[in-house]
Amino acid sequence: MFIVVAIIAFVVLIISHEFGHFIAAKLCGVKVLEFSVGMGPKLLKKQGKETLYTLRLLPIGGFCAMEGEDEDTGDPRAFTQQPAWKRIIILCAGAAMNFLIGLILICLLFSSVPRYGTNTVDSFMDGCPYVGENMLQPGDTIYSVNGERCYISTDVTTFISRAGGRDIEVVVKRGGEKVTLHFDELIPTLELTDENGNTSLKYGFNFRVQERSFGSQLKYSWYQAMDFVRMVRLSLVDLFSGAVGVKDLSGVVGIVSIINDVGQSSPSVTAALENIAYLVAFIAINLAVMNLLPIPALDGGRILFLILTWCIERIIRRKLDPKYEGYIHAAGLVLLIGLMLFVMYNDIVRIITG
Q: Using CA atoms, how far apart are residues 280 and 342, in angstroms rounded to an integer?
């Protein structure tokens, strides 16, 4: 059942992304030739007034094919004939729709949360070694950890743990001023046992909570969405720094497997759907950010080339042939498909080998 839920979630994200391009193109007066969900051979098709709507075999993508997208067809309604600002809006609309879906899911999930953890220290557990005049004090609002801005309580623990607990700079707001604290070591040392007898190590400081209201729900939903955006950046940093490898990446198959595992391990169907919705929100925002990276074939790559082309055309005072940009995006698409197949292969191997 949860595999079906995962597939439906992916289809919804694909449709919403392409619908963003579609509706923006229509509003900007661009002719849309085909709106497709999926890639590969056509399974179903329906011809509209000017747009062909298709469902294709492979649920790993989709597209909104516009007139003159990669070449000058001479049609006044072609994509390449539109002003740069219209084309940028159309290209950004897909990612914007994915981000909106993620934000809405977070907001819905947060509607059942009675209170939210702030980034302000409320109190300390007995024996906490990090409280004192030149250390943390009750009422301190933790502004940043090692330069990373903190908005909610989990931000603090996340960036402390990413630093390995060593050489940590914490900026706090205290009495209306920013105070910088330095910790040679900041690791969880206090053991806490919950009502079920489970033990865990804690840093020893407790954070204030804010009761749920409509305003706080929107605010903390936005904070969580921004945290998801930041997690994408941190993941890319880890990838390029070698902290994680390409083999650690997960594609559609791996994510479906993770969603299924999350559903299976949840104590109830309701909890499973909530956990899956949270994961889907992260995936939606992840897709939005990744799609805007300046990589050929992605929307971000198209925006980059659009800006570069506009600048070059202002200098040389003549239009560039868009077919050359099309060649670059086609090559980028081939490389992306190759990466997707490699990641899919690794996903399948991980599932088989357990």
A: 23
Mean pLDDT of all residues belonging to the chain: 88
Annotated catalytic, 185? no
Residues 316-348: pLDDT tens digits?
A: 888 877 777 788 888 888 888 788 788 777 778
CB 40 within 8 A of CB 311: no
Neighbouring C-beta atoms of residue 89, cutoff 10 Å:
16
pLDDT tens per residue across span 138-168: 999 999 999 999 999 999 988 998 888 788 9
3-state DSSP of the chain: CHHHHHHHHHHHHHHHHHHHHHHHHHHCCCCEEEEEEEEEEEEEEEECCCCEEEEEEEEEEEEEEECCCCCCCCCCCCHHHCCHHHHHHHHHHHHHHHHHHHHHHHHHHHCCCCEEEEEEEEEECCCCCCECCCCECCCCEEEEECCEECCCHHHHHHHHHHCCCEEEEEEEEECCEEEEEEEEECCCCEEEECCCCCEEEECCEEEEEEECCHHHHHHHHHHHHHHHHHHHHHHHHHHHHCCCCHHHCCCHHHHHHHHHHHHHHCCCHHHHHHHHHHHHHHHHHHHHHHHCCCCCCCHHHHHHHHHHHHHHHHHHCCCCCHHHHHHHHHHHHHHHHHHHHHHHHHHHHHHHHC
| pLDDT averaged over 10-residue windows placed end to end, the chain, 354 residues | 82 90 95 90 92 86 85 85 92 96 95 92 89 90 95 91 88 93 87 74 89 93 94 87 74 79 85 90 93 89 90 85 80 83 79 76
Total-model pTM: 0.86
| Catalytic, out of 18, 67, 69, 325 | 18
